[in-house]
Amino acid sequence: MTLQNQTPEAKPHASEPVPSGQPPSRRSAITGTVVALLLLLGLSGLTWYLLKPDATPAAAGGFRGAPASTVGVATAELASIPIVIDALGTVTPQASVKVRPQVSGTLTKILFQEGQMVKAGQLLATIDPRQFELALMQASGQRQRDQAQLDSAKVTLKRFTTLLAQDSIARQETDTQAALVKQLEGTVAIDMAAEGLAKLNLDYTRVVAPVSGRVGLRLVDVGNLVSSSDTNGLVLITQLSPISVVFSVPQDRVAELQQNISAKQRMSASALDRSRATVLEVGSFATLDNQVDVTTGTVKAKALFANDKQALFPNQFVNIKLLVSTLTDAVVVPVTALRQGANGDFVYVLNAESRTVSIRPVKRGQATVEKIAITEGLKAGERVITEGADRLKEGARVVLPGDAPRTGGAGAGGDKSKRANRDKASANPASAPVGTADGYADTASAPGRKRPASQAAGS
Fold first, then answer.
1. 191 in the same domain as 241
2. Among 81, 231, 401, 410, which residue carries the largest CB count within 10 Å?
3. What one GO molecular function would you report for this record (predicted)?
């Protein structure tokens, strides 16, 4: 195979002009595109830099350019706050009695109205008394007969005793007569008991109220045969005044209650409806159970209420607020000021001069419906955010109701400045800032001249 010397064709230098009619190389096209893109990116960055908001923060730690949030504030103050135990309780009557007849017979009268308030000892109903009157007469006659025999035996014994002293009768006869007197005395005692029982049964034909309270629905009508073995009874009487509420308290609060009980300190208790909006009755703590319920870790307690207006009804569910003591000189803020985060409770404290907020970790204490005590982390006189805190962070700028609107700086002022620059650029394109919407860009070769951005990129 014959090797031929071939001279490679000379390629034009990159700086030499391409002959007319020859298409540009692929590398030259890519290079031009990259340069144009880099130039456009540079112009975009310069435009953003010149049009960005004021870089000076409103305060140390503030959000650059972030608009201020309108918030509500409150001042932490020293106040007394009650220490209470909230619990769910059940209204329990002091007495609830099912009235049953104690003798059997026909019900002849009912002397009460359903729902009526009755007094203890008041007549409610009567049972046919005739058989009991006859039984009383029989017992009374038996007692009188035996009493006469006893009186006769005593006279005979007295005579025998006199004859024995004269040695006119045997001692045996005297002793026998004395034994007869003893026997008849026992018989008379039995007769007296039987007579008393008959009289008691006759009294039982008059059914009276055992306690004062409210009568329920009638459970039997006139003419029915009733007896002491009836399970339903005649009627149910429930004592409404006074009345108690049984509720449960956590075992951790038992020590406080025991201390007050030992000191004989009265603890006020309020019964509220299910919505906690209305106080039904105000009473006092009565007693505490003697053991902890192991299933719930609570102890049953009882509060007593006069219930003169009968606002509490048996078996009604109510909310109990038990005032254990009062915490004085506590740092108190509205409950809306307390926030919860991953690290615990905190509040936003207002920096009055810079109109910024700071996060302050705190420890909560006793709370009421509107106020809460802060045990650590806050002093009286400091102002905390109560409204609009959801939009805040550490160092955020805020506006208080009544503050005069700001005219400069970042935020609203910065927006006005940018709008003014755009209006000025539209009126005088030669003086428009670099990178404005009018499409002008600055060049390094002629700092004072403005050329269209498209021409600058093309060069």
1. no
2. 410
3. efflux transmembrane transporter activity
CA–CA dist 324, 265 (Å, integer): 9
Domain of residue 317: give its range: 86-94+237-326
Shared domain for 298 and 333, answered yes or no, is no
How far is 371 from 390, CA to CA, in rounded Å? 19
- For 350, counting Cβ atoms within 10 Å of its Cβ (0-12 exposed, 13-18 middle, 19+ buried), the class is buried
Helix (H, G, I), strand (E, B) or coil at 207: strand
Other C-beta atoms within 10 Å of 255: how many?
9
And the tokens for 391?
A: 């939009």
In a domain? residue 24: no
Tokens of 442: 């600055």
Return the H-helix or E-strand segment holding 201: helix 171-203
**For residue 399, what are the β-bridge partners?**
70
pLDDT in tens, 69-117: 888 899 999 999 888 899 999 999 999 999 999 999 999 999 999 999 9
> Looking at the domain assignment, is residue 44 inside a domain?
no
> pTM for this structure?
0.59
**Tokens matching residue 200:** 């008691």
Any domain includes 322: yes
